[in-house]
Predict the 3D structure of the following.
Amino acid sequence: MIRCRKAGQSKEVYGMEEEGESVPQHYFFEEMNEAASVLAECADAFGPGDLLPYAEQVMNERINKLLDMYLLAKTLGDEEWMSELQERLKQISGFSFYPDRVKIS
């Protein structure tokens, strides 16, 4: 099950498995999407106010971090890690805070 969480809400899911019981596994949307992860991080850090100035900075920092990790993965020759990082970079680099601006890749 994929759920969104509210700003400040814990990522912990209560009601974990008891003996013999199977509980559905939960994934938060920000764990599946890099841009959503940045927005959730900003909402947690700065509250639900005007996040735009902070989110743009954090988004750029995340892109730089992912590029650094990609360079390391390439240096190590880790194709699987490179592929994962490419997917994360595609998610985040295609995101725009300004819907009227077209981002051309």
